[in-house]
C-alpha cells in the first residue's frame, strides 16, 4: 500500500495515496481515508475536548483515565487526533488487516503508544466486550447495526455519524424503514428529518438498556448526519427520554405540520389547517438537537485549537447554537415558489416574523431554511407582503 504523510490538526500520520490520474473515491482505497471529512473530525476534536472538561469537572478522575473508542478507525486519524489533541486514552479498532497494519504504523509514527492501542475485532464484538467513556461510531454507511452494542458500551458519551442520508431522509423509503424502524418523509425538511430519525433510533436503543440521552450537539453537513449524545443511566431517565419521541403529520397541500408525542398515538388523516390528506412520519425525535451551553464550550475549543477548518466549523456550531428548538424547519424558496412570489433576504423574513411577535431563527441546515412558531398561514401572509 502506497502512503503519504499528512498533518491534520496537529497530528501527523500516513494515509493511502490514490492512483495517479484516476477518479479515486475514498471507499475504493485499500484503507478508507476521506480528506473531505476533516471538518467533521475538527468538530469532533473540539466537541470531545469540551465534553472531557465537563466530565473531569463532575468526577474525581484524571484525563488519562478517560477511554475513547474509535470503533471504525481505518487509517486511525480520528482516534489519533483525539489522543493527541484532547489527551485521553484511545482505542483504534478496525476489522480490516490492511487498516490494522496502517493503524499500528501511525501509532508508532505519532509517538503515542502509551496513550493509544490498536484493536482488530468486529466492532459489535468489541463494543459488547468492553466499556468506554466515549464511544465514537463513524462507519461507512449506516450506524444502525451497531447502535445496540454501542448503547451497551458507552458510559458517558455516544458520538454517532450516519452517511446513509438517502434512507434516513426518505429518498430510499423502504431502506430507511428497514434500517431505522421508522418512516421518513422526503420533503423540503428532509435533512432535519434524517437527523431526527437517527436520534429516535438512538433513543430507543439506549432505552432498551435503561439509558437516557441528552443531545449536546447535532448537525447535518454535506452528506452526513452527526450527533453527540450524553449518556444518563436509569429506567426513570430512559422513560423521560422516550417522552420526546413522536410523529409528524405533514400536509403536502398547504405545508402544515403537527407534532404528536408518544409511541402509540392516534392521528387524524385530515389536515387541521386545510382538510387535505396528511402524510405521517416517525417515530422520530421531537426533542432538542443541542444544548446551547455545550455549543458555547465547543466554540471556545475551536478558537483555541489549531484546526484546518476552524472558520467553517465555528460557523456551523454558531448556527446550531442559535437556531430554535422547534421541529421542523421551513424552506423560504419552497414557500415562495408555492405562493408565486419573489424571495426576500432570509434575514428580512426572520426580522419580519419577530416584529409580528413570533420566535424565528435561521438554521444550519441550509441558507434558505428558517424555524418559527408561526403557523403556515401566518408565514404565508408575511412572505406575500415581503414578495
The CATH homology group name of the largest domain: Vaccinia Virus protein VP39
The CATH architecture of the largest domain is 3-Layer(aba) Sandwich
Number of domains: 2
Mean pLDDT: 94
CATH topology label of the largest domain: Rossmann fold
Q: What share of residues are in beta strands?
A: 15-25%
- Please report the total strand number as a whole number: 15
Largest sheet: 7 strands, mixed
Distance between the termini: 58 Å
What labels describe this entry?
14 helices; Rossmann fold; Phenylalanyl-tRNA Synthetase, Chain B, domain 1; seven-stranded mixed beta sheet; 387 residues; alpha/beta
TL;DR?
The protein is an alpha/beta fold. It has 14 helices and 15 strands. The protein has helices at residues 38-58, 77-85, 97-110, 123-129, 147-153, 165-169, 173-180, 190-208, 235-242, 292-304, 310-322, 332-339, 346-355, 376-386, and strands at residues 3-8, 11-16, 67-70, 89-93, 116-119, 132-137, 154-162, 211-221, 224-233, 245-250, 257-261, 279-285, 330-331, 360-362, 369-372.
Amino acid at each position: 500500500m502506497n502512503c503519504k504523510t499528512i498533518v491534520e490538526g496537529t497530528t501527523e500520520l500516513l494515509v493511502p495515496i490514490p492512483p495517479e490520474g484516476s477518479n479515486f473515491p475514498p471507499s475504493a482505497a485499500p484503507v478508507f481515508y476521506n480528506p473531505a471529512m476533516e471538518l467533521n473530525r475538527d468538530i469532533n476534536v473540539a466537541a470531545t475536548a469540551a465534553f472531557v472538561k465537563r466530565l473531569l469537572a463532575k468526577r474525581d478522575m484524571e484525563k488519562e483515565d478517560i477511554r475513547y473508542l474509535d470503533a471504525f478507525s481505518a487509517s486511525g486519524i480520528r482516534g489519533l487526533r483525539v489522543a493527541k489533541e484532547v489527551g485521553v486514552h484511545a482505542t483504534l479498532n478496525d476489522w480490516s488487516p490492511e487498516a490494522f497494519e496502517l493503524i499500528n504504523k501511525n501509532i508508532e509514527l505519532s509517538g503515542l503508544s502509551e496513550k493509544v492501542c490498536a484493536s482488530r475485532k468486529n466492532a459489535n464484538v468489541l463494543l459488547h466486550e468492553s466499556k468506554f467513556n466515549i464511544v465514537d461510531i463513524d462507519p461507512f454507511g449506516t450506524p444502525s447495526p451497531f447502535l445496540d452494542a454501542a448503547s451497551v458500551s458507552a458510559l458517558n458519551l455516544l458520538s454517532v455519524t450516519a452517511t446513509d442520508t438517502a434512507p434516513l431522509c426518505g429518498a430510499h423509503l423502504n431502506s430507511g424503514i428497514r434500517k431505522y424502524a421508522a418512516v421518513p418523509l422526503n420533503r423540503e425538511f428532509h435533512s432535519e428529518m434524517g437527523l431526527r430519525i437517527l436520534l429516535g433510533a438512538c433513543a430507543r436503543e439506549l432505552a432498551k438498556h435503561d439509558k437516557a440521552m441528552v443531545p449536546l450537539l447535532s448537525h447535518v453537513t454535506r452528506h452526513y448526519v452527526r450527533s453527540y449524545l450524553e449518556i444518563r443511566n436509569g429506567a426513570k431517565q430512559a422513560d423521560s427520554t422516550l417522552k420526546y419521541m413522536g410523529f409528524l403529520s405533514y400536509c403536502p397541500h398547504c405545508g402544515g405540520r403537527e407534532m404528536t408525542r408518544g409511541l402509540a398515538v392516534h392521528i387524524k388523516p385530515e389536515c387541521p389547517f386545510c382538510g387535505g390528506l396528511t402524510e405521517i412520519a416517525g417515530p422520530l425525535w421531537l426533542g432538542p438537537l443541542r444544548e446551547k451551553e455545550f455549543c458555547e464550550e465547543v466554540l471556545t475549543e475551536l478558537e483555541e485549537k489549531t484546526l484546518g477548518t476552524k472558520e467553517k466549523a465555528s460557523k456551523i456550531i454558531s448556527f446550531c447554537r442559535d437556531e430554535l428548538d422547534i421541529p421542523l424547519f421551513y424552506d423560504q424558496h419552497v414557500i415562495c415558489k408555492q405562493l408565486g412570489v419573489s424571495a426576500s433576504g432570509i434575514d428580512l423574513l426572520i426580522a419580519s416574523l419577530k416584529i409580528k411577535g413570533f420566535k424565528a431563527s435561521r438554521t444550519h441546515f441550509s441558507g434558505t431554511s428558517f424555524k418559527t412558531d408561526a403557523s403556515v398561514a401566518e408565514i404565508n401572509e408575511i412572505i406575500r407582503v415581503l414578495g
